[in-house]
What does this fold into?
Amino acid sequence: RRRTESTPIYDDVHGYLMKFGYLPESDLETGNLRDGNQLQDALRTLQTFGNIPVTGKMDAATKELMKKPRCGVPDLSPAAGQRRTKR
Amino acid sequence: YTLQGQKWHHVNLTWSLRTRRLDKVDHGWVRSDLNRAFQVWSKYSKLTFREVNSESADILVFFEKGYHGDGYPFDGPGQVLAHAFFPGTGRGGDAHFDEEEEWLVADKTSKDGTSLFRVAVHEFGHSLGLSHSSVQDALMFPWYQDLQSDFELPNDDRIGIQVLYGAKDDKSWGDIPVYRPTSQKPILSTTVPATTAVTRYSTMASDTTPEYTTSRTTPPRRPDVAVVVDEKPDFCNTSFDAVSIIRKETFFFKGKYTWRLGTKGLYAGYPALISRLWYNLPENMTQVDAVYERQDGKIVFFIGRNYYVFDGNNPLPGYPKPLTTLGLPDELDHVDAAVVWGHNSKTYIFSGTMYWRCDDETNQMELDYPRDMSIWRGVGYNIDAAFQWHDGATYFFKNRDFWKFNDLRMRVEQEEPRSIGEFWFNCTATRSGGGNGDR
It folds into this structure.
């Protein structure tokens, strides 16, 4: 089988994932090195939230989603008090 | 749907449009679209919305651009369109729209415009306590989707708002704990002069200060700061203006005085007047805001809108200089704390709800600052002081307490702050208060 190409993850993707709650913002200052899993998880969560195919990769659909205009409030917030009620 | 934080304890909410700079769209149409957006929520719940012309309205609506002082700068046309704050005091409930977007009002359509009504309905969902939903056709779906103005509220949002505030016709009130502000907001009549200014930097839910100050020129100081001009403050029973390590010793600053702690504790003869150790500080100085020792050994004092650099006891020529020469914004009127952070040996400057990082090469603030202080979890806003002690840990001070901060986890080690007097000055709990703090 042909290996799928992996696309590099650039800073602005990190920035987007942190800004909207998919990666912990505290890494802004500590600059902790992330591992690949953490990033893939974050992408998977974003893809689930955005109702696009969940691949964990920076694919075309994800790029498209990231370009869409949106609300500035984070989608996931670590703050206490956020309750997701089962439907 | 997702609920976040608290909800309003009353259902007859007021709102007010607080921006005058709306040159691209007609003010009247904006208000009309905002009003229609509120009606979407009131149609399906017990909520009612009344427009007033007052800074004391529950939900204030602003059109801002770029950095506008809340830690969430806008990015010009595209991507982030607006944001809003969940119910609460201060800026709780407020909604901010990016002024630089191409807003469409009164059902105008255009390929690259953005419907103000559509975005407003979503943001007001946040103002009422709803967070983002991953349901594609929900109003609270984070990405912009066009809607007809006579649409029906999708199920996901309708259930969410009814859980919070009850449906229009049913009697139950929902089972979510109700937010009760500590004081009932006075709702001013519409005759309030439009020029009333609001400074919100220091208001927090747990503050005992009144929620609004009306004078921008004299920003509020911490309520517990007693102006101590000549008496020596009682170090067992006071907050501090600044704390810093200088020449390997720990200095606490309060009013005109400083305390010097070495390895064996407080030196005899302290507190001493700051002006005895550092010469040519302003005569009329009542306090220093922040002090730190730079990596080149120079000692920097922040006082109001200026800063002084000392080489030992003597000020360097050419100082004081305004904070703006460091690249800090000109509306900044004081610095709360300055610290060389052990974790990366970078210099951080804190003020109000924001913080900056200074490039020690250029002596300028780095470009993608300021940022919101919430990153320093557990510390809160409007701190008094911060410094890095011999143990390599960072300490934050506020009122009469302090927190030890865990640099790697980016949060305070214990939520509960500890008493400054007890830890740093060996005051016993019973001896605190009175005199100048004998041990």
